[in-house]
Input
Amino acid sequence: MPFESGRVAVSVGPDLVALTDGEHIWWPVPQPGRRGKPRLAVYRTPTLAAARLAAQCATPEEALCATPR
Output
């Protein structure tokens, strides 16, 4: 879904939406940071973002296969 700002939101899975502005890709990380505040994962390349999204959505066994080559 495009926004007036030029950003695009993509539903990746249940309760997970990734956003992009054409330069960066980001999404909320389910686990809070050290101070209990929400965190964002931010990546510059689609390849790395896709690998990290796959790892976040995968079981621990599947996450081992999500490393970009």
